[in-house]
Amino acid sequence: MPDFCAAYGCANHRCLETRKRGITFHRFPKDGEGRRRWEVAIRRDGFAASARTLLCSEHFRSEDFDRTGQIVRLRDGVVPTIFNLPAHLQRSETRRSTSTSRRAEDNLPNSMDLIPDGSAEERSRLKEQRKQQATEHSYALPGSPEALKAKLEAALARVRKLEREKSNAFRREKRAKNNMQALLEELKEKNLINEELKDKLERYSDLPVHLLSKQGVEYTKAQRDFALTLHLHGPKAYHYLRDTLHIHLPHPSSLQRWLSSLDARPGLNKMMLDMLERRRQEDEDKYGCVTLMLDAMSIKKHVQHDPQTQTMLGYVDMGDRLNETDLATEALVFMVVGLQGYWKAPIAYYLTKSLTPETQKVLVVHAIEELHHRQIRVVCVTMDGHASNVSMCTQLGCNLKADPCEPLKTHFPHPVTHGKVFVMMDACHMLKLTRNMLEAYSPIRSATGRISWNYIVQLNNVQKKSGLHAANRVTDKHVNFANQKMKVSLAAQTLSNSVAVALRTLQDLDYAEFRDSEATSEFIKMLCLPVCIEFIRCSVV
């Protein structure tokens, strides 16, 4: 059975002919309110639409349709308005009959006195023009529905034009930012990346951003390298691009999956060393001289299966691929830091349990030799002041426990070139050790007098009692630091120049508790300047 249009006097039905004419058919809305509005609009007495009742497209305006897809659809909330109804069903046109409108019409002929000459037709035309000007203000509605419809269509056309202009401006702005260089500049302005990271990512400045927005497309090597570098050095910037700007960067779990395929077993990382060699060939001044840093950190005993290598991880591993049975308790990490430029790179790590100074010496010599083979010169080795590190330096050729009256030997011969390789203890760790030593072994006798931790305790007590601080930061947490021994800021603020000045000031004010504090203030003043300078340098690197 063919489907006919339900409108009064409309004979259109679904067939090949109406399809060629571009006529489409649309069912009544399913919701009750929308269906009722359509039923009222067609003005048929006692009419009730069924599930198969249709209206053809000739009863809707052109702007009621959504033709963006393959199927022509009606926009939400539209109502049919075009019908060929009999005369008794036509809505009569009402004209305004207010006293103001009548007064305006009566006054129109008087204005014709200003035109002494002219034909009757011209005077009639001017009268009609004046009438329209008097009634059609920007806030007044036209007198006829046709004029009202024309005015509405003009306004809608203006709105559509403005929307197109806005959309085009947005596309132009998006195209201007559609390269990686613009994104890097934006991240730098928002302080999400520093100048060092921006320099690292400059090599990807020509990478088109729109390629990252294609779902289901395999990432290229350049895109992978960019994502890995940005996530490693600037995770906040990575999440800003991915979550705020909605750039289709890989999910962090994808990055972890990519990294799991790399060879990251304990020992020297050949891939990192080869990368440093390539960088040295590009910039000899920046990558030719380095400092070798080593540090050991405690790790939790844990055994885990690696599905990539089908091995068990968590045992002692020195990079020699020997099967050990002892669980690792420490990780010894080697890192090189550039003397010029702000860069650093880990080159090796070892899982250990109780590493002897002899074994540690072999690892350090091996790392220096591997760097030398790539024409990278190690001029300094930096570490903390642990006893095993001091013993290792002694075996390398240093003398850090000599007679205090004799100069220390703070260098050892290079294993290949026999040049000097200097040893520098980590300033932050040595500052904490000095603070701990002063607290544990106080009082200490020196050539200038007695050095005592008790003066710093008394300084804190006096400041608490008076409610004033003598331009220093000493508080209870600086004096009772047992639970925060690893916090460098507490040690730096305790052994600072401001504390030395405060002790000297209280001594000059004849405080009984600080009568013999001159040696302590001199000791702190001697420490603070070189240590703070080194601390700032290490923090920047």
TrEMBL record:
Pfam families for the chain: THAP (PF05485), TNP-like_GBD (PF21788), TNP-like_RNaseH_N (PF21787), Tnp_P_element (PF12017)
Region (Disordered): 89-144
TM regions (residue ranges): none
Gene3D superfamilies in alphabetical order: THAP domain
Span of the signal peptide: none
Domain of life: Eukaryota
Segments forming a coiled coil: 145-207
Keyword annotations from UniProtKB, A to Z: Coiled coil, DNA-binding, Metal-binding, Zinc, Zinc-finger
GO molecular function, one term: DNA binding
Biased composition (Basic and acidic residues): 90-106, 120-134
Domain THAP-type span(s) in chain numbering: 1-83
InterPro entries noted in UniProt: THAP9-like_HTH, THAP_Znf, THAP_Znf_sf, TNP-like_GBD, TNP-like_RNaseH_N
Protein name per Swiss-Prot or TrEMBL: THAP domain-containing protein 6
